[in-house]
Amino acid sequence: MYDVEPMQNIDFGATGVEEILQNVAFIMATAMMSCPLDRDFGWDMTVIDTPINIAKARITAKLTEAINKFEPRALIESIEVTGDGLVGSLKPKVKVKINESV
């Protein structure tokens, strides 16, 4: 099982497990509608002005949907959302297993 947080750097030569983990991190860091040639890529980050528990549930649901769609080799084990919603800082952390046979 691997922990994944939103992407900081890109390794253009990543392969195998590292490629899959990097893809998940890239999905996590990308807002839907922000990629000019693929507006559907990423996840819907519109949880603004919702109660914290609802925001965490929506983040979990939207990330699950996006990761399943764009990187099916990553099997989600859990998603933990931490941070302080009162100051607008919620950070997701995803735990995945890898299915390289897909």
Mind explaining what this structure looks like?
- With 102 residues, the protein is α+β, with helices and mostly antiparallel strands.
- It has a single domain (2-98), classed as Nuclear Transport Factor 2, Chain: A.
- Helix content is 31%, strand content 24%.
- Strand 2 and strand 3 form a beta hairpin.
- The two termini are 17 Å apart.
Task: Using brief descriptors, characterize the structure shown.
102 residues; globular; alpha+beta; 3-stranded antiparallel beta sheet; 2 helices
Helix and strand arrangement:
Layout: E1 2-4, H1 16-28, H2 52-70, E2 74-84, E3 89-98
Summarize the structure.
By secondary structure, the protein is of the alpha+beta class. The chain is 31% helix and 24% strand.
Q: What is the radius of gyration computed over CA atoms, rounded to a whole number of angstroms?
A: 14 Å
Give the proportion of residues in helices.
25-40%
> Can you tell me the CATH topology?
Nuclear Transport Factor 2, Chain: A
Shape, please?
A: globular
Main beta sheet strand tally, sense and closure:
3 strands, antiparallel
Strand order of the largest sheet: 1-3-2
CATH class: Alpha Beta
Task: Supply the helix-strand structural class.
Answer: alpha+beta
Mean pLDDT: 89
How many distinct folded domains?
A: 1
Name the CATH architecture.
Answer: Roll
Total beta strands: 3
